[in-house]
Amino acid sequence: GAVVSQHPSRVICKSGTSVKIECRSLDFQATTMFWYRQFPKQSLMLMATSNEGSKATYEQGVEKDKFLINHASLTLSTLTVTSAHPEDSSFYICSASALTGRGSGNVLTFGAGSRLTVL
Amino acid sequence: KNQVEQSPQSLIILEGKNCTLQCNYTVSPFSNLRWYKQDTGRGPVSLTIMTFSENTKSNGRYTATLDADTKQSSLHITASQLSDSASYICVVIGYNFNKFYFGSGTKLNVKP
After folding, report:
1. What is the rounded distance in angstroms from the CA atom of residue B102 to the CA atom of residue A117?
2. pLDDT of residue B12
3. Is B88 an 8 Å CB contact of chain A?
4. Interface of chain A against chain B, CB under 8 Å?
5. Contacts of A38 (CB under 8 A, 6+ apart)
6. Bridge partner residues of A114 (DSSP)
7. Residues A23 and A112: beta-carbon distance below 8 Å
8. Beta strand segments in B2-105, E
9. CA–CA min distance A4, chain B (Å)
């Protein structure tokens, strides 16, 4: 259980175009979703946290107008990289969280990641 | 400030050897602590989940320990294999389950 599907796994786009990445919780309802980016050989960097039905909370230094996050339902969140540039090339990962009511308290599952290359 | 510190930053060991990764945290109060394994180019995968009342939990060759008094956790890998080469991330979840604090990870390289 607790599977998170992230799509696409790889995307190549031209500079100036927009790219949308989807993150779906397949077998649970995710009250909170997180988006990260990761540069080669570096650790995960949290970009934003989104709760279903409300605006995302962005980390300091992350441009909210460039990285649009939508969490319209309890099973789907999307990250749109607008007007992408080569420096936006990175590995983007989502994770989804939900309270389970069991001992460990909640689920925190990561997607497999999306490799974005902007030419 | 709530923080999670992992050490070492990177580690190289020979196949078959054991190793221990450390995670020190200042998050308080907290609900549980998790260890994840992240293979290169993949999303992190959960290894262990421990509540504040648990001291140890095993998952195959992986054994996590937790000392809530000293706010320290360790992940011990026994008889390492080449496939253990990955980054290992410690995550501490705050008391209300709505705050997640990530360590920067330990990159493990197992050599033949």
Report:
1. 26
2. 97
3. no
4. 4, 6, 32, 34, 41, 43-44, 46, 91, 93, 95, 97, 99, 103-106, 108-113, 115
5. A44, A45, A90, A91, A92, A93, A113
6. A92
7. no
8. 4-7, 10-14, 19-25, 30-38, 45-51, 56-59, 62-67, 72-77, 86-94, 100-102
9. 10
**CB-CB contact of B47 with B14 (8 Å):** no
Amino acid at A64: K
**Span B23-51, pLDDT tens digits:** 999 988 888 899 999 999 999 999 999 98
CB contact under 8 A, B43 and A111: yes
What mean pLDDT is predicted for residues A43-58? 88
Indicate the DSSP class of residue A88. Answer: G
Q: Which of A4, A95, A103 has the CB atom closest to B51's CB atom?
A: A103
Nearest Cα neighbor of B106 from B74, B82, B80, B79 is B74
Helix, strand, or coil here: B84? helix
The mean pLDDT value of chain B amounts to 92
Select from B45, B97, B105 the Cβ nearest to the Cβ of A106.
B97
What region, left, alpha or beta, does residue A61 occupy, with left being phi > 0 and alpha being psi -120 to 50 degrees?
A: left
**What average pLDDT score do residues B57-72 get?**
95
